[in-house]
Amino acid sequence: MYNIKVRGVLIEGNKRYHDITRDITNPLLSKTTPAWWWAAAFISSAMLAWGVWGFYNTIANGIGTWGLNNSVSWGWAIINFVWWIGIGHAGTAFSIFLLVLHQKWRTSINRAAEAMTIFAVMAAGMFPLIHMGRIWDGFFIFPYPNTRGPLWDNFNSPLFWDVVAISTYLTASFLFWYVGMMPDFATIRERTTSKVKKAIYNVLSFGWLGSARGWLRFESAALLMGGLTAPLVVSVHSIVATDFAAGVVPGWHSTIFPPFFVVGAIFSGFAMVLTMMIIVRKVYKYEEYVTQRHLDAIARVLTFVSLIMGVAYISEIFIAWYSDSPYEMFVFFKNRTVGEYAFEYWAMITFNAIVPQLFWFKKVRKNITMVFIISIFINIGMWYERFVIVVTSLSKTWLPATWHGYHPTVTEVAIYVGTMGFFILGILLFLRFLPMMAISELKGVLKETSIVTENSENHE
Predict the structure, then answer these.
(1) What is the DSSP code (8-state) at residue 336?
(2) CA–CA separation, 225 and 223 (whole Å)
């Protein structure tokens, strides 16, 4: 049972069941769209259009439009692929782990976090395909009966690993997200006066009636899917980490990479959830649902994970020194700390391991502006981490004659901005047409806190 005296009220404003239904469904049933939504949609569409140009330029003219060379064969495409995959861990980790641990404070945030997962993974999936160079040969990486030999084309290819990881993770995350919305679709179906919307939401809800048997099967399915999907949070980013760890490049060939990448993914994902929910609670005036306690809980999680990230960075440096390998020591002690990419390295350390420690102070956690700024810094720091891993290790390897710097081109920047626009536009469409919070779960939390409050009052 949720202890309201210890943890506080999760839904403020003395809400009733009807109030929750009305507040969550009003943005969907409203006939007018806010001006800020149209402005954000216009900007994100412009970003997406620039990204489409970047994709076209790459496909039409080849990978030569990127800043890659014989030394740095992986650039912004892989950096942004790993970054988006990390952000995509937020929804599943947030919803499933906290669901299994029976954390009630997740109910106001999990739906938006799951939506963020869907669009982030879709954005990530664009990069491995286009990074092949010959996108029209993309079918080579998919498993299907063929005359070229075995069913699976090449088990040893990291491209194949990424395809399996992304497709499995996207499918499981989408099913978990969609099944959770079915009762809410039925609620919207009953409240809307539009015959078209009523028909659409009836199809989306699969004729949900809200019977006791239906709720029992729904809750069982949610727990079952959560249990089956939870290992994917670990396995997916472990596979992405193995893309690097399986090589012999100095700075990559390390057994710490799989757990390091998983923790980093949860770190960046939670930071992006914090960024998005602060914006959502402000523009939709949902301060009574996404309370200070919710933001405080996420900040505490980020503080803990930031300590793990700091330990991982120190462990990498120690292992490089203890190995006594001149190549490893050069990568960490010269190329990264004082070399050409020293700024990116120290930005990574500062934003990921030092700045989040400000959350130890209660005054910082209560300052929404400071929390928002720190969450942005964490997202920037995690992007720098991927840049440091990819570029610093490839730019200077064993032979000085092969050393070569790397700088992204306009085409690479356009593709990244385009995926950012795709992500933002997807979130905007989600906020406009789908319930951004789980109505049934919010009512469940309200019921539990009401019972605790009544019992405590009667006891007194």
Answers:
(1) I
(2) 6
Q: Are 141 and 157 spatial neighbours (Cβ–Cβ below 8 Å)?
A: yes
Q: What pLDDT digit, counting tens, does each position of 269-301 carry?
A: 888 888 988 998 888 888 888 888 888 888 998
Which residue reads 């502006």 in tokens? Answer: 369
> CA-CA distance, 57 to 71, in Å (whole number)?
23
- Please give the single-letter amino acid code of residue 240: V
Residue-averaged pLDDT of the chain: 83
Q: Give the C-alpha separation, 218 to 226, whole Å.
A: 12
CB count in 10 Å sphere of residue 264: 27
Contact status, residue 342 vs residue 289, Cβ threshold 8 Å = no
Look up residue 301 and give its amino acid: V
The C-alpha angle 380, 381, 383, rounded to 5 degrees, equals 65
Check pLDDT > 60 for residue 104: yes
CA distance 228 to 222: 10
Residue 102 backbone class (left: φ over 0; alpha: ψ -120 to 50; beta: rest): left
- Residue 298 · residue 356 · CB < 8 Å: no
**pLDDT for position 130:** 83
Distance CA 112, CA 124 (A): 18
Phi, psi of 180 (to 5 degrees): -65, -25
Distance, in Å, from the CA atom of 343 to the CA atom of 340, rounded to the nearest integer, reads 8
For residue 39, what are the contacts with CB-CB under 8 A and spacing of at least 6?
none
**Distance in angstroms (rounded) separating the CA atoms of residues 3 and 198:** 39
* Tens-digit pLDDT profile for residues 317-369: 888 888 888 888 888 888 888 888 889 899 999 999 999 999 999 999 999 99
Q: How far apart are CA 343 and CA 364, in angstroms?
A: 26
Which residues touch 184 (CB under 8 Å, ≥6 apart)?
24, 435, 438, 439, 440
Name the token pair of 392. 């610093």
CA distance 357 to 231: 29
Dist CA 245 CA 242 (whole Å): 5
Q: 207 and 119 in contact (C-beta within 8 Å)?
A: no
- Residue count of the chain, please give it: 460
Look up residue 227 and give its two tokens. 């249990």
